[in-house]
Structure formats: structure tokens, C-alpha cells
Amino acid sequence: MILGIESSCDDSSIALMGLNLDLIYHKKITQELEHSKYGGVVPELAARLHTAALPNLIKEIKPYFKDIKAIAVTNSPGLSVSLVSGVSVAKALSIALKLPLIEINHLVGHIYSLFLNSPVRLPLGVLLVSGGHTMVLDINENGDIAVLVETSDDSFGESFDKVAKMMGLGYPGGVAIENLATKSTKDRYKFTIPLKGDSRLEYSFSGLKNQVRIEIEKSLTNGNKDFADIAFGFQRAACEHIIDKLSKICNQRKFSSLGVVGGASANKYLRGRLLEICDKFDMSLLLAPMEFCSDNAVMIARAGVEKYQKGNFINLNDLKISPRSSLSSIYL
Ligand code: KG4
Ligand code: ZN
């Protein structure tokens, strides 16, 4: 089996996956509560919590030590102090148990969440919507990844987090905004869709966030703290922006399958809109199981299985963290 370790942001997670893709163990300790009062992830706090959590998780899998063939660990991208925690644990275990190391790009890990217990099927279009990234990817039959669209400012998930913070809903904001939007009774807020009619293939959420900020302030001035209608209008505009640029791409190239990954891919309104676009462009929609949309070590172990089978290991001294690395020159 392969041990997967994930600590790129605010979740400490480890998983054991058999080479036949059986999931043997998975546990995740999330730090949401601790960061919630600050309205976002505090790196120093995240690092301290990883350092406390990871050794306890490793203790739990001691009975399996003899069956582990390699250690796969997220080393990019992410918060540097968080990545270091997982990579240090991986290196210590590698020395103690004499096991090879496998480096995993977190974004590649998310893509593997589509294939946790099945072989990878390529080629594939991918929409990656997380707290750190918003991208459309084109993965060819060899696994080469081309980034077609990125965000020029906030990511999709981050915009939910920031709007939630403005509304006093804590961190992370995605689920809170989605739930609040279901309570909307009046379709009052028609926010401008970012870059609509603009030929640029890029995402941008900061302008939308500012439109929302103005409406929240107006509402507060009027003594109204019920933001359900604003949440609904915001979620619709943010999802419409995703669909608008995705449609432009689909008009230019044909994907037979579209995979949607990342924490924000759990958003049900977005999933509904994606079903429509897949129908329109005759693509099959691939989704990760709900519980594995957000960060987890299962997807890291799954990516590790693939690299193990290809003999793709990294020396202990060459394994470094790379907080900003993107997907250029990375393949599946
Ligand atoms: O993939 P992930 O767990 O971490 C990163 O790699 O960034 O994604 C977390 C992000 C957060 O911004 C969170 O607010 C967002 O995903 N998110 C959602 C939903 N669930 C999580 N955004 C919108 N709707 C949701 N239901
Ligand atoms: Zn992630």
C-alpha cells in the first residue's frame, strides 16, 4: 500500500491506499474551527496545528507500517509552513522505515479525486475550483496538462470565503454562502457578470466581490442583516462567470469528458449549471465523491499509486517544497 500525506493548507490528512486502489485508512483533522475566528487561514497557526496533528495520525497507522511500499506527500503548491510539516513527517518516516518518497502536486492530487477507485481515463477537460486556484485544464491522452484559463485575482472558492467574511459567516465560506443562498426569497440582486462579452479567457472575482461589498454595506445602513438574497445573487453571478468562460472554451475545442474538482466543486448550484453545459456540448460530467472534493490525503495516495507503478520516486535530499509551483511541466 501507499501512504499519502496532505498538509498543504489547513487540513492534516493521511491515507493508506492499496496498489489495487482499495482504500485502507483515511483520516483528516481539519483546522476550520481554529481559523474561523480570524476569517481565513493564519499560516503560523496552521503550521503549529499540523505539527500537533500529523504525528498522532501516523501513530494510528503503526500496525500497517510493514505493508507500506512508498510515501507520497504533497510538496506543492500551498502555504510553505504547512507544506513543510507534511514533507518533514514524510522524510522522517522514509528514513525510519527505509521507504521511497514520491512528490505530489496538490492540483494533480485533486484531479486524481475523479479516479479514486478506477483507472484514469484520458483525454479530459478539467475545471479546478478550490480556495487557491480556479483553472480550466486540457489533459491529453499522454497526461500532459495545458492550462487554458486561470484567475487573474481571487479564486472562485476564495471569493466565497471573502463574501462570507463580509457577512460575518466565518471561515471557510463556501458552504455557509451556499446554505444562506437557499434561504433567499427574492431575486433582487443582478450582479454584473465579470468579463462578460470580453474575449479574454481568464477568470476574475475581485470586481464581483466589490459589487457584493457595496450591497452588504447598503443593506447594513438600512438596518438589514439578512443577506440571503445577496448570497443568492453572488453565487449565481460567480457560477455564471465560470460557465461563461467554460462555454467559450467548449466552443473552441471538443472535450468528451469534463472533470470538476477542488473544494468548491461540492457547490450544488455550480454542479447544476455544469450539468447544463455538459448536456449542451455533449460532454460527460465527472465529479469526485462529495467527501473527497475538499483537501484530503486519499487523492494524494491515489496519485502516489500511479507514480509508484511508474517507478517515479524522488531522493530525500531532492524533495523540496514549492509553495507557488503551478501545473506547467507537470503531467498526470
Ligand atoms: O480544495 P480545497 O479544500 O482547498 C484548496 O486547495 O484551496 O478548497 C477549499 C475551498 C474554500 O475556499 C471553500 O470555501 C470552498 O472550497 N468551498 C466551496 C464549497 N465548499 C467548499 N465553495 C463554494 N461552495 C461550496 N459548497
Ligand atoms: Zn485543494
Automatic annotation (TrEMBL):
Localization: Cytoplasm
Keywords: Acyltransferase, Cytoplasm, Iron, Metal-binding, Transferase, tRNA processing
EC number from the UniProt entry: 2.3.1.234
Domain Gcp-like as annotated: residue spans: 26-301
Catalysed reactions listed for this entry: L-threonylcarbamoyladenylate + adenosine(37) in tRNA = N(6)-L-threonylcarbamoyladenosine(37) in tRNA + AMP + H(+)
Cofactor binding: number and manner: Binds 1 Fe(2+) ion per subunit.
GO molecular function, one term: tRNA N(6)-L-threonylcarbamoyladenine synthase activity
Record InterPro entries: ATPase_NBD, Gcp-like_dom, KAE1/TsaD, Peptidase_M22_CS, TsaD
Binding residues annotated for Fe cation, in chain numbering: H106, H110, D295
Record bears the keyword Transmembrane helix: no
Keyword Acyltransferase annotated: yes
Cofactor(s) listed in the protein's UniProt record: Fe(2+)
Root EC class: transferase
Gene3D superfamilies reported in the protein's UniProt record: 3.30.420.40
Residues holding substrate: L128, V129, S130, G131, G132, D161, G174, E178, N267
Function: Required for the formation of a threonylcarbamoyl group on adenosine at position 37 (t(6)A37) in tRNAs that read codons beginning with adenine. Is involved in the transfer of the threonylcarbamoyl moiety of threonylcarbamoyl-AMP (TC-AMP) to the N6 group of A37, together with TsaE and TsaB. TsaD likely plays a direct catalytic role in this reaction.
Family per record: Belongs to the KAE1 / TsaD family.
NCBIfam families (UniProt xref): gcp_kae1, T6A_TsaD_YgjD
Name of the protein described by the UniProt record: tRNA N6-adenosine threonylcarbamoyltransferase
Organism of provenance: Campylobacter porcelli
